[in-house]
Amino acid sequence: MSEPGRQITGGAGDEGGWWLLPDRLFDGTRWRNGCALHIEAGRITAIIPQGAIPSTQTVVRTALLACPGFVDLQVNGGGGVMFNNDPSPEALAIIGEAHRRLGTTAWLPTFITDTADRLDMAVDAVIATMGRHGVAGMHIEGPHINVARKGTHSAELIRPFDARTMASARRLREAGVPTMLTLAPECVPDGVITELRSMGVVVSAGHTAATGCETEAALEAGVNCFTHLHNAMTPMTSRDPGVVGSALDSAAWCGMIVDGFHVSDATARISLRARKRPDRTFIVSDAMATVGGPDSFVLYRETIRVEGGRLVNRSGSLAGAHVDMARSVARLVRAIGLPLERALAMATSIPADAMGLGHGIGRLEVGGKADLLLLEHDLSVARVFGDGQAL
């Protein structure tokens, strides 16, 4: 039996499996302190009280907190690579490993506004990589968005909804790839949202200048998510709820960036209190190439750099996020004031449920993958396990 601490050597190759005894255990939904996890062949095979484990098997005891690996539904890049710049399986491997080192074990490669041909390449890459390097689906963000709320997206590449994008979504779904598509509902023809939803695509409103009435109509048509709440969308005013107010008052899923730059801590706190369904709000990183990589990169032929902890373009405007999920969880707890269990759920089980990612992703449960983290008391990542192997 190992001593409490950080020397964790157990792995899926141990004959007969091994037991992990953490100081605290969060399974994605609730605390299960005092329990041990049995891990064998990359799966969790039992969760029982620590006092009931057999004395004959390998036991790893640690003073750290165990929780599911993070699930991030908006990852543009990492490790010095942007998916848009290199829509290939090789790029996904680099991005995935960069984020895995930081605690994200399941993620959606996010392809922002670009040409239809490059989107086809990105779809090919995701289908080829699905299930490896943490790739758990795909997020297509644009190009069918409102130029008035384009953010860092290229105005020249924004275009009306077309058959090419519908075909890309259909190809992903036919290959069994969970798919999210961000669009501006006021910019797509009638019937598009309904058709996408009929395929099982998560349709998310984002980069939109819709009114409250237009947003309500989109929700009726099937929109079931909102992309990076508050950012690149119509704010709530005294005379119109806009996209923000409609999102807060809806039962749809909502993603939010909590880096302290995209949304102020006070605004995040108020929004979480105001949501009709707070259990359907999750966090995303919206990470760019600088996460786990150098401090600058090129997007749309423009250099983006880290400045004062945030990513900016040459005009000083925000251009994506330079944050990982662990730092976001810590901010939810320390700056925004959430209980730790709620913050962890917003980074694990809630995003997994939003995408329907299935058994064992975003949760520690019997039969599920042994993708889990050990967190320090300051909530930094001490150790990452993928398929039961310490990485």
Number of strands: 22
Q: How is the main sheet built?
A: 8 strands, parallel
Strand content: 15-25%
Do you know the CATH topology of the largest domain? TIM Barrel
Unreliably modeled segments: 1-13
CATH architecture of the largest domain: Alpha-Beta Barrel
Q: What is the CATH superfamily of the largest domain? A: Metal-dependent hydrolases
Q: By helix and strand content, what is the structural category?
A: alpha/beta
List the total number of helices: 10
Overall mean confidence score, pLDDT: 95
Query: Shape from CA axes?
Result: globular
**Rg from alpha-carbon coordinates:** 21 Å
The helix content is 10-25%
Features:
5-stranded mixed β-sheet; 391 residues; Urease, subunit C, domain 1; 2 domains; 24% strand; TIM Barrel; 10 helices; N-acetylglucosamine-6-phosphate deacetylase; 25% helix; 8-stranded parallel β-sheet; disordered N terminus; alpha/beta
